[in-house]
Amino acid sequence: MPERFEIVEKALLSLLEGKKYATLRDILITMNPSDIAGLFDGLEENQIPLMFRLLPKEQAAETFVEMEPDAQELLIRGFSDNELKEVLDELYVDDAADLVEEMPANVVKRILKHADPEMRSSINQILRYPENSAGSIMTTEYVSLRPHMTVEEAILRIRRQGIDKETIYTCYVISKDRTLEGIVTVKDLLLAENDDIPIEDLMITNLIYVTTQTDQEEVARMFSKYNFLALPVVDGEKRMVGIVTFDDAMDVMEEEATEDMEIMAAMTPSEKSYLKSTPFDLYKHRIPWLMLLMVSATFTGMIITSFEDSLSALPILTAFIPMLMDTGGNSGSQSSVTIIRALSLDELHFSDLFRVMWKEVRTAVLCGVTLALACFAKIFLIDHLLMGNDSINLLVNGVVCLTLAVTVVIAKFVGCSLPLLAKHLGFDPAVMASPFITTIVDALSLLVYFMFAKSLLGL
Amino acid sequence: MPERFEIVEKALLSLLEGKKYATLRDILITMNPSDIAGLFDGLEENQIPLMFRLLPKEQAAETFVEMEPDAQELLIRGFSDNELKEVLDELYVDDAADLVEEMPANVVKRILKHADPEMRSSINQILRYPENSAGSIMTTEYVSLRPHMTVEEAILRIRRQGIDKETIYTCYVISKDRTLEGIVTVKDLLLAENDDIPIEDLMITNLIYVTTQTDQEEVARMFSKYNFLALPVVDGEKRMVGIVTFDDAMDVMEEEATEDMEIMAAMTPSEKSYLKSTPFDLYKHRIPWLMLLMVSATFTGMIITSFEDSLSALPILTAFIPMLMDTGGNSGSQSSVTIIRALSLDELHFSDLFRVMWKEVRTAVLCGVTLALACFAKIFLIDHLLMGNDSINLLVNGVVCLTLAVTVVIAKFVGCSLPLLAKHLGFDPAVMASPFITTIVDALSLLVYFMFAKSLLGL
Description:
CATH class of the largest domain in chain A: Mainly Alpha
CATH topology of the largest domain in chain A: Tetracycline Repressor, domain 2
Distance between the termini of chain A: 65 Å
Number of helices of chain A: 23
Oligomer: homodimer
Largest interface: A-B, 122 and 122 residues
Helix content of chain A: 55-70%
Largest sheet of chain A: 3 strands, mixed
Strand content of chain A: 5-15%
């Protein structure tokens, strides 16, 4: 698919450059708005408005929503007031709110000026909710029904109102004071045996809903748990204020997974796509963590300095430091990443702490013993026999492998418990991934190493 | 929500233990199947069939689908032939195929024996497709229409067939030989101006579809790109064979993100949830990578051994090894994780290799210089002046900081290019994350360190 698409892209660009607008338009109208938006990414700045004006009104608006913010800004600046109004009229309220959030102040002013009053007030309402809350990603356009309506009346209402709604398939039954009373789907309506049945007999009343303040991550989790098309959003008095649709939940899922991965790799999450980020953008997101972790590694250096005499007495000990540190770091991050992901999928809670620790310690003993045995055999066969390194005798080998086993157990213990503790204390558990765990485990493994070396080798 | 739910759970369990079945049933019928399935996880083995039999037929089947495989197996083994048939009749074909895949052979035999012939053949068809292909996650139940039908006829057909279909909202217009010709939504049908319009005038013909062989990751990406409710699956001759619905795509997205994270943390992906995995399960997924990486770290040890003389001459050099290795590892994994994620979201391709390298090298120079300056100041102020360590003179300090800067650049270069190369060669780029990059960068950074030390300090 991507390869095939690249060919289409090239063909369309050459049509544009050859000024074959009629042909270009004929092809564009058969394309999906997401794909057309993708096409705009490859255009020169002066080509963007040209191509955009070829699109029919509705398709133009749908394409506009899928475009990157810089292209949107460019277009809006070039729009006549009339053109702007036309695009805005076609936008869903939540997309308009996203747009307003992305644009600079003077563009926002122009947008709000040309939006119709109802949309303007909805945009303002959505923007008032905290970032990453259900309120901030919802749309205020949904089909509302009344309990006493019949199936026939309901279908009629959907037919009349549906055109402007993001989804018509789930309808919300609300009372006079806008309290959410039930949910009825178009499937239920179409499959109802009789057109005269009142909605209140058909609607589901064991409602699952979120409030405007619910975190968007929680909202996404509910979608993946319940398989809904849309989830109602209510205020503190259970009055209906909007809906979140599954496509927004999918975006949130993707965003949150990316964010977790970025944090786990010691970066501040960024909303910009990689290719749009400048080196300085990347630098800003990466340097604070590198700096912090570099300074933390000072402790490891201090530990080595304080055992300098042992290392001078038996220099071969230094050769095993990287292997011990790396294996410890890897063991720890295996545990921490497993726990962080389970936490973010809501499969684990703080109350599972002791179960998790017990499971990890047993796993760690299995891993530690296996690795220690393999390491012992490898050092004996390769370093000692094959390479003939006499300073690596059985006792030194024993110290290294014992340290290895103990390090793995410590690493997995630290790796599994820190994310759970972080979550419990209200921090993001993803911070407790590889880089942090590695720094802590490095210091601990060196301490263990030198303690064993001192006591067993008498250094 | 989770806290509130735990209280409900406890109340229901005490009703079950107190044999208050009527009350229990009254509460259960108001609950969502996903939540009831969650409840079963906390039950004793003998309580599961007891509680399950309290549920009305349809809700029982919906709950069954959401349950863990062990609970499903337990129930099926206890079912009478009649009960089994009843549950199977209520299942969607794709859920039935999932069930068959999870169950042991003798249970599968019983399931297939009691499924109706049509379902049996559909299950067999789905199971024949490769794992992780669109064919293996699709359902064969969808609403099909004919081009010449009118809106009225189409709605009538949906009303008649809809009850058994997973989604009725997207309908597929197929020709006599089952070729997919167009798509029409219930929204289009309901909003059509006139009931006599033929479907072919209403349907969308710029179709986006996948084949049975398309990878499920690609399918999920198309959902998040196009915001579809369902995606048609066709065979090699563009004949319609099934649909994938958005809820399955969401599950795939979640699975694939988890899988990427596991691979990035050097684990073989597992489909079992953490709490259901035994320590031995975890061990099996973790030990191969730990072993491989431990053996790779041998090279780092060999590098240190070959520069043993330099280290003996200036033991303080050892103290900076952990800091250099860790910072290199962290810098590299920042780049690799960023690239791996962008690749899996399809934001980057191999053709971007040089753009990516150029961007990363510039970022690396910024990071490297900042870190080196900070490190120089820290060593000079703290280690030299404050701690009075005389062996750390300006030249030693210079060697450490120069190594640091070079290491960061190497790390980011390796970190960004290896995932792209891996993808290009058909390997999973996620393998090229922190642990692998760290091992490579460790060796390189030590080489740089000792080379600078030898040439600048004359060791």
